[in-house]
Design brief:
The complex is a heterodimer of chains A (279) and B (575). By secondary structure, chain A is mainly α. Chain A is built from twelve helices and no strands. Chain A has one domain: MetI-like (MetI-like fold, Orthogonal Bundle). The longest helix of chain A is centred in the middle third of the chain and has 32 residues. Chain A is globular and about 75 Å long. Chain B is α/β, with parallel strands linked by helices and 575 residues long. In chain B, 37% of the residues lie in helices and 15% in strands. Chain B has 21 helices and 15 strands. In chain B, the strands form four sheets. In chain B, strands 7-6-8-5-9 form a five-stranded mixed sheet, with helices on both faces. Chain B has a four-stranded antiparallel sheet with strand order 3-10-4-11, sandwiched between helices. In chain B, strands 12-15-13-14 form a four-stranded mixed sheet. Chain B is globular and about 85 Å long. The relative contact order of chain B is 0.13. The chains are: A mainly alpha (279), B alpha/beta (575). Chains A and B meet through helix 4, helix 6 and helix 11 of A and helix 6, helix 7, strand 7 and helix 9 of B.
């Protein structure tokens, strides 16, 4: 060990090298987080001020922040924002549930038994390379054009993302725990249930937290076919016949939803695994 | 209770929580329409609104027989371009960026340009000194965004797509679309395929239809539904993003009763899927879907000579295609540009009819043509307004610019051009035409003066003297306009006009004079249409049914309903 010692006390932490990963005060963290957002807003305003014809970026591409805010009313009442949020959220949630029901047992099994892993790993690797949009027509011919197709399409996207993460979570369980379990005479099932799953659980929840956003990135594709309403559907319509403002508003709404659901995951992790503070 | 806790018991806490939740729930329920609003009811259309969409000129009880040409100057109605132009342009290379989709209608410009890439052999370069870069951008949203950002100068589209695009693009006067030329009429390229149980548009009531939203398909089907007297809300609409997907969904899901799609799918499905048939295509509705291109207003303002060169060059391409060898070469160029085989391109050859100079004049300048730019634009606007797709539509004269056509006419460049898109009708009879089921039947009401068959009958005073410059039915022009538009869209179809009379005198008088009166009334509708809109008289087959067929069998004595004229569209094969 070097001269700085291992205690990690702030007094001894000096010199540029130890600044890495240094904790910063909460206030500073918040301020730093706001800076890029303000910068983006400032640039946005700069590019879109003046009469329509004087702007750097035409309003037919990017409306000004104030114009976007001004479209909240029509987004809420004409485009049925609240109903669309409910529709999209339930699609994402159900798609996630479908994917989890497959990825969870399969991922644990792949992490536990090499034969299962050998069987599915190639598929899992290929899957993560696939441009999933190309699979929309296929999901249509398999599941029709109703809700099922949207849920299954999102489920597919989730599955491809979740599976490797769950396998990785199980992989990261230290062999020491397994050895201990064997020594104590645990059966194979008991080892999987009480060692692999229990130890990997926080990591699995972390994987779910990270994966939940994937559904939202595919929402436009999911709602391209025969969606009565939905956030993706609002964007699709606004791209064609306006107002342009709705596109950017919906993006903001999705950011807001992302923030809130992420908080929820953090809260869930804290309560499930109080012994292991989720970052 | 010895304990004196200041807090609540678990039961108390539960009660408080339930109370609060109940309050939130109650408030939520009370404000449910604000929290979960539903956009204004779509459908519920007053079908007589067709009547408010007035024609091109003031009410004219006498009708007119001459070709009437617009007399205004386009630049006075088009929105002025403000600010500095914002498109990309290299003044030395002079290359117009012209995106197109996969559609045979672009063959003339591909021919004129000698391929897709800008080159010095093209008509545009040799005759007009600029180059054209044709780029395949099949996705309309991408094409629109490239146009709005100034990357391309041209926006391809059908006129019905332009109605949807225009209000947003006109927010910036520089990207406002200017339409100078019609490329083609869809002529078999679009169609509606149904399950065999659907005999006529009327049968679609309560059924499920699938089509690509915001596309010509949406206009095609909803225009038909409205004309057949079906509210859009009486049909279940399922949307896809492309016509290809709509066809695939129809094939995959037997619960879907109809799909609107494109060639070749519309012809392949009835061959391959049992129990399906074509209801109608743009072979019948051969003047319904107009393909055009629009220029950015700032570009059009800065480069009038390029605009004229583009329009004239495309007409020259159309002329050149009359030569079969050159046409073969053009197919080759198109196949290369699209990355398709020559055979695939040739198989699209019958999807569209290229509109030459004379036909463009008819479309842009003839105010009496039942399927001209103005009427097409207004009809699209009507349909999309009723569907709740647009709030503040653009006016037709804010996008239509016929100045180039007028300039070319003055120069006499295409003086030899003739309207080749005219349907010849053989004399026929109602019985012959009626042998088949009509695609669509539209019921119209004209209030005839008792015992009169004159649709322009004036009002009469108490003594029975006709009042000059009055009309017994003041809506008659608008009613005729509605029929004329439908008949114009279905330019190739045969139309039956059936007159009905009320049965108020049943039992008191003989039936014969009533039948005769209903026939005369049908004839007077026909005559008015032929006179005002210059239809071929043989397009219409007329009959009178007297009081034999009440409008509603369940209430045969509803005489107001019974006094009517029915317009039925029959596929051209049945004549």
């Amino acid at each position: 060990m070097g001269g700085h010692g291992t205690s990690g006390g702030p007094k001894v932490l000096q010199g540029s090298a130890v600044r890495i990963r240094r904790r910063i005060p909460r206030g500073e963290k918040i301020v730093l987080g706001i800076v890029p957002i303000v910068a983006i807003l400032a640039l946005w305003t700069l590019f879109t001020t003046g009469t329509v014809e004087e702007r750097v970026i035409s309003s037919t591409i990017l409306p000004s922040p104030m114009e976007v805010v001004g479209a909240v009313g029509s987004l809420w009442f004409q485009a049925e924002l609240s109903r669309s949020i409910v529709a999209s959220f339930s699609r994402v949630l159900l798609g996630f549930a479908v994917a989890f029901l497959i990825a969870f047992p399969l991922g644990i099994a792949m992490g536990a038994w090499s034969r299962v892993r050998a069987l599915f790993e190639p598929l899992s690797v290929f899957g993560s390379y696939l441009p999933i949009p190309a699979l929309v027509p296929l999901t249509m011919s398999m599941f029709g054009i109703g809700e099922m197709q949207k849920i299954m399409f999102l489920g597919l996207a989730f599955l491809i993302y979740l599976l490797p993460l769950i396998v990785k979570a199980v992989d990261e369980v230290d062999d020491v725990y397994l050895q201990t379990a064997y020594t104590m005479g645990a059966t194979q099932w008991q080892t999987v249930r009480h060692v692999l799953f229990s130890v990997a659980a926080p990591q699995i929840v972390q994987a779910m937290r990270m994966g939940f956003g994937i559904g939202w990135t595919y929402i436009i594709l999911a709602e391209m076919v025969a969606a009565d309403r939905g956030l993706g559907q609002i964007i699709i319509i606004a791209q064609r016949r306006g107002p342009r403002e709705h596109i950017y508003l919906v993006l903001l709404v999705i950011v807001l939803i992302a923030y809130l659901t992420d908080r929820l995951w953090v809260y869930l992790a804290r309560n499930l695994f109080p012994y292991r503070e989720a970052k | 209770m010895a304990e004196k806790k200041s807090g609540l018991t678990p039961l108390g806490k539960a009660v408080v929580v339930i109370f609060i939740l109940a309050c939130i729930g109650g408030a939520g329920y009370f404000f449910r329409d604000t929290i979960f609003p539903k956009a204004g009811a779509k459908g519920g259309v007053d079908l007589d609104k067709f009547k408010q969409e007035q024609g091109v000129e003031a009410k004219d009880p006498t009708g007119i027989t001459t070709v009437s040409t617009y007399t205004y100057v386009p630049s006075q109605k088009l929105p002025a371009v403000k600010g500095t132009s914002a498109y990309k342009w290299d003044a030395t290379a002079k290359t117009v960026k012209f995106p197109i989709n996969v559609w045979i209608g672009w063959l003339p410009i591909v021919a004129a340009n000698h391929g897709f890439a800008p080159n010095t052999d093209s008509v545009f370069y040799k005759k007009y000194g600029f180059k054209v870069d044709l780029k395949l951008i099949d996705d309309p949203v991408t094409a629109r965004d490239a146009y709005a950002s100034g990357e391309s100068h041209v926006l391809w589209g059908t006129l019905d797509m332009m109605v949807l695009f225009a209000p947003e693009l006109m927010k910036d006067s520089r990207t406002a679309p200017r339409i100078f030329q019609q490329i083609d009429w869809s002529n078999g390229g679009d169609g509606i395929v149904v399950r065999s149980s659907i005999a006529s548009v009327k049968d679609l009531k309560g059924k499920t239809v699938v089509y690509a939203q915001n596309s010509p398909s949406q206009y095609f089907i909803n225009n038909l539904l409205l004309n057949a007297g079906i509210q859009p809300s009486e049909v279940k609409h399922k949307y896809t993003s492309t016509a290809f997907e709509a066809a695939a969904a129809f094939v995959a899901d037997a619960k879907i009763d109809a799909c609107v799609s494109w060639a070749p799918d519309i012809y392949n499905i009835p061959e391959k899927v049992k129990g399906t048939r074509i209801l109608t295509t743009t072979t019948d509705a051969n003047k319904l879907i107009a393909d055009v291109w629009a220029l950015r207003a700032d570009f059009a303002k800065d480069h009038p000579e390029v605009v004229e060169g583009l329009v004239a060059g495309i007409f020259e391409g159309m002329k050149g295609l009359k030569d079969e060898t050159f046409k073969g070469q053009a197919f080759q160029w198109m196949a290369e540009g699209y990355g398709m085989t020559v055979d695939d391109v040739k198989s699209m050859a019958n999807d569209a009819h290229s509109t030459n100079f004379a036909e463009n004049k008819d479309f842009f300048l003839n105010a009496n043509s039942p399927s001209n730019f103005e009427r097409t634009w207004k009809n699209v606007t009507f349909v999309y307004k009723e569907l709740g797709l647009i709030d503040t539509p653009a006016r037709f004269d804010e996008v239509m610019d016929f100045s180039v056509l007028q300039a070319l006419e003055k120069k006499g460049t295409f003086a030899d051009s003739k309207n080749e898109y005219v349907t010849q009708f053989e004399p026929s009879s109602y019985q012959k035409v009626n042998a088949e089921k009509p695609i669509l039947t539209q019921t119209i009401r004209i209030n005839f003066y008792p015992n009169s068959s004159n649709i322009f009958e004036p009002q009469h005073d108490e003594l029975g003297n006709a009042q000059k410059s009055t009309l017994y039915d003041p809506n008659v022009d608008a009613t005729l306009e509605k029929v004329a538009r439908l008949a114009g869209q279905y330019d190739r179809a045969v139309i039956a006009i059936v007159g009905h009379a009320d049965s108020s005198m049943k039992g008191k008088i003989q039936e014969d004079p009533v039948v005769k009166l209903s026939l005369e009334r049908a004839n007077s509708v026909k005559d008015a249409l032929v006179k005002k809109y210059q239809f071929d008289p043989n397009k219409f087959q007329v009959t009178g049914k007297g009081w034999a067929e009440p409008a509603d069998a369940t209430q045969p004595d509803n005489q107001a309903l019974n006094r009517r004229v029915e317009i039925s569209i029959y596929p051209p094969e049945s004549k």
